[in-house]
Write a structure and sequence with these properties.
single chain, alpha+beta, Nucleotidyltransferase, domain 5, six-stranded mixed sheet, five-stranded mixed sheet, globular
């Protein structure tokens, strides 16, 4: 059995796995990396920490010897999306990398969108032209890599001038592995400078780059995600104990590999990711944008395919907030530690609470929201709380509130693709919770299929991309090699409860939107306000 060394490089750390070309995870290792946050919206990481974590986890896997080195035929990396690394001609980073949470460039995007005709803060003429060409455009949040780049140009001109290429984290790791610089249409999408109107001919839009007043030579050449970038360098082969002929594929960021790892390959086959944040996606055969609900079809990792991009800010992050800021806050009142199995404890508590949580509704907008509304002033909270409620009601209400929010997004996803999704494959850390999967099934009225080993979906997706590029499998093999640990069907009795509460969930947003805007219109949520990766 041939295998791929898969690097799942997220914000919280590096999870490296050895995965067979048919998607079986043979072994894996994880090492955390720090995130440096600042009150000015700064969110940075040190690329040295990334690389050291990759070396550490890879060494662990190779030393365990569960898979012979000669059976590792390729390396495929899948990295955090919407970051920025400035490198010199030798591929050395020139400063800390920008994380997707960094919003310091927001003022430059706001300046760019100045004009007489504006909609929700965007220059209407500019944004329509951008959408026509790229499918989207620079967002006012300042969290896109193009905003990070403009911040470097404006505030750190010496770094900008020294930079040979600006890269996504995905493509920086590939430089470290091979010494070769390239990107894919998937990884470069959020720079909003590629013409994506023809999926088989994605290229840089020179007019857009000129409009942003950026040097066009500072962007890498484009290759397909399944293309072989090169072989691992001799130095790295020696350090890692790999064969010197081990090939490295271009790969794709984590959002792209997640759907492939979920086995959602055919057009309109839906999958649902539930982690710190959440999103609902599928592959589609066309370019399309819904600017009013913050979603679009963008270049995917599979050749000739678009995938649907959207994201909701907080899902599992709401449980982390409950754990760290309320139940187990480190102060003189705390008497116990959460322990490693705290989420399993939450599951057991939730199982004992009746659906509906005594009509308690939780809104998960603790960090504003992106989709189906792009609203950074909205906030979360509990509604209809009474003295009759206890900890179990609060925890279950959070599970249910995240599900209501996902149903809200699903409504517009189905409008986007003009069809109903009867089945959703679920992946991510939250997908390990059986009770949460059942809540999603009941709230959404959909069959939820729990992908086996759901936290390894990115690694499996990365392996499938490499296996495709190296000729070991065909696209249709991916779905056939995806297995499910459980299937959850909607409970009709529970649906009746949730349909009523869902209507009130939507009503809460409509009634509270203006109030929250008045309270928070001049308040920016910085990355350090409790939103940890």
């Amino acid at each position: 059995m041939k295998c791929i060394l898969c690097i799942d490089h997220g914000t919280s750390g590096v999870k490296t796995a050895i995965v067979s070309t048919n998607g079986t995870v043979m072994d894996w290792s994880f090492k955390a990396v720090p995130l440096f946050l600042g009150e000015d919206g700064k969110a940075e990481q040190d690329p040295v920490e990334w690389w050291n974590a990759i070396l550490h986890t890879t060494h662990e896997l190779i030393d365990r010897g569960h898979v012979p080195v000669e059976d590792i035929v390729g390396i495929s990396n899948t990295s955090q999306f919407s970051g920025l690394v400035a490198v010199d001609k030798d591929g050395n980073h020139l400063m800390n990398a920008f994380n997707a949470m960094d919003s310091r460039g927001a003022y430059l995007i706001e300046r760019f969108h100045r004009g007489a005709i504006k909609v929700s803060g965007y220059n209407l003429l500019k944004v329509l032209n951008w959408i026509r060409i790229t499918g989207g455009g620079p967002t006012l949040s300042g969290k896109d890599p193009i905003a990070h780049l403009l911040f470097v140009k404006d505030q750190l001109p010496e770094i900008y001038n020294k930079t040979y290429k600006f890269l996504e984290p995905q493509d920086y790791i590939n430089v470290k592995l091979t010494g070769k610089i390239a990107a894919s249409p998937a990884s470069m999408q959020l720079f909003w400078i590629t013409d994506t109107r023809r999926i088989d001919d994605v290229h840089y839009a020179t007019g857009l780059i000129k409009a942003l007043r950026i040097d066009p030579d500072k962007f890498p050449p484009l290759k397909r995600s399944i293309d072989v970038l090169g072989t691992v360098t001799k130095e790295n082969a020696d350090i890692l104990g790999l064969d010197k002929q081990t090939k490295v594929v271009v790969g794709a960021p984590d959002l792209h590999t997640a759907g492939i790892g979920a086995g959602a390959i055919a057009n309109y086959d839906g999958y649902f990711y539930i982690g710190t944040s959440d999103y609902i996606s599928c592959h589609v055969p066309y370019k399309k944008t819904d600017m009013f609900h913050n979603m679009a079809s963008l270049p995917g990792a599979l050749p000739g395919r678009y995938y649907l991009y959207n994201e909701q800010e907080c899902a599992g992050a709401c449980l982390s907030f409950l754990r760290d800021n309320i139940l187990y806050h480190k102060d003189e009142l705390s008497r116990e530690e959460p322990g490693p199995d705290v989420y399993k404890k939450f599951d057991k508590i939730v199982e004992e609470v009746k659906p509906g949580s005594k009509n308690l509704i939780f809104t998960p907008w603790l960090y504003g929201e992106r989709a189906p509304v792009d609203n950074h002033s909205i906030r979360g909270g509990f509604y209809n709380m009474s003295l009759s409620m206890d900890k179990g009601d609060l925890i279950r209400a959070i599970f249910e509130g995240v599900a209501f929010n996902a149903r809200w997004l699903l409504h517009y996803v189905e409008k986007f693709i003009k069809r109903k999704m009867q089945v959703l494959n679920v992946i991510g850390g939250g997908a390990q919770s059986n009770v949460w999967c059942q809540i999603f099934a009941d709230v959404m009225g959909k069959t939820i299929r729990q992908v086996s080993n759901p936290i390894q979906s990115n690694a499996r997706g990365a392996a499938f991309i490499a296996a495709l590029g190296l000729g070991y499998i065909k696209e249709e093999d991916i779905a056939r090699n995806t297995t499910f640990s459980n299937v959850f069907k909607p409970d009709a009795g529970h649906q009746a409860v949730y349909n009523k509460l869902y209507k009130e969930f939507l009503a809460i947003y409509k009634r509270m939107e203006k109030l929250y805007h008045a309270m928070n219109k001049n308040v920016a949520i910085c990355a350090c306000e409790g939103h940890q990766p």
